Amino acid sequence: MQIPALPVELVDFKPEIGLILGSGLGFFADDRIEVVGRLPYDKIEGFPVSTVPGHAGQFVYGTLEGKRVICMQGRFHYYEGYRMADLTLPIRLMHRIGVHTLFVTNAAGGINLDYTPGDFMMLSDHINFLGTNPLIGWQGDEGVRFPDMTEVYDGALRARIRDWAKAHSVDLKEGVYLATTGPSFETPAEIRAFAALGADAVGMSTVPEAIVARTLNMRVLGISCITNAAAGISKTELSHEDVSETADRVRPQFADLLAAGVQLA
Ligand code: HPA
User: Fold this and answer.
1) 3-state helix, strand, coil in the chain (%, to 5)
2) Residue located nearest, by CA, to atom 10 of ligand 1
3) How far apart are CA 77 and CA 53, in angstroms?
């Protein structure tokens, strides 16, 4: 598989920080970035083609807190039918043009009983429950074949963000994210099992991108927006609409946290 070429304007711009904006969090690019350019994914030859109507996305690049950033407004999910190597191609591409730090965001269900919808959780670690790995079958030269995963989410950067949160009275949680394929939500029995495995939150993304970023030795930071209590903990049925609604409600707080993270990176 080839890493696609990007327009010269974007390559010359030399973004240093990448942001993957998860479900309901794409607004960040429009609200907070001083936009220099946009690049729809379907204009990139060899890029995965969206299988879901309205699910197409774009790169938005510009400056934030004086840093050159590139955002993925819309990401690819395994449940959409992409191969792992394809859905993580954007990470390889961002690395190729100079991105050394990756912020990965997502919407997630809260398993930890201390979490309430609207909370933010910085990822301390993850559990790959996808049943596969994005490095399987990769034929290119870039990256370590057997990357170490002892500290996927950068400890020093997490400490700085933790301190910022404390200083600004932001109740930032920190915990373990477990990735499932979706797209069905979990059963209560699965959530009890995931809790026993040590998961604090559950979602359908992030882990593939984080693994590929680490094989490329990028610095990674993960932030979950806890949009709902996970199945069985929640007294009500789960729906994508409720997930989006919560993400929408905490927009300003999420944007402040992410912008602070970029500034501290
Ligand atoms: N489960 C899986 N993925 C999710 C959830 C959930 O409860 N909420 C948001 N994304």
Assistant:
1) 30, 25, 40
2) 108
3) 14
If DSSP states are collapsed to H, E and C, what string results for 191-253? HHHHHHHCCCEEECCCHHHHHHHHHCCCEEEEEEEEEEECECCECCCCCHHHHHHHHHHCHHH
For atom 3 of ligand 1, the residue with the nearest CA is 203
Q: Which residues in the chain come in under a pLDDT of 50?
A: none
Assess contact for 172 and 161: CB atoms under 8 A.
yes
6 neighbors 39 (Cβ within 8 angstroms): yes
CATH 3.40.50.920 fits 12-136+148-264, yes or no: no
Q: Which atom of ligand 1 is nearest to the CA of 238?
A: 7
For residues 30 and 87, give the distance between their C-alpha atoms in angstroms, rounded to a whole number. Answer: 23
pTM assigned to the model: 0.95
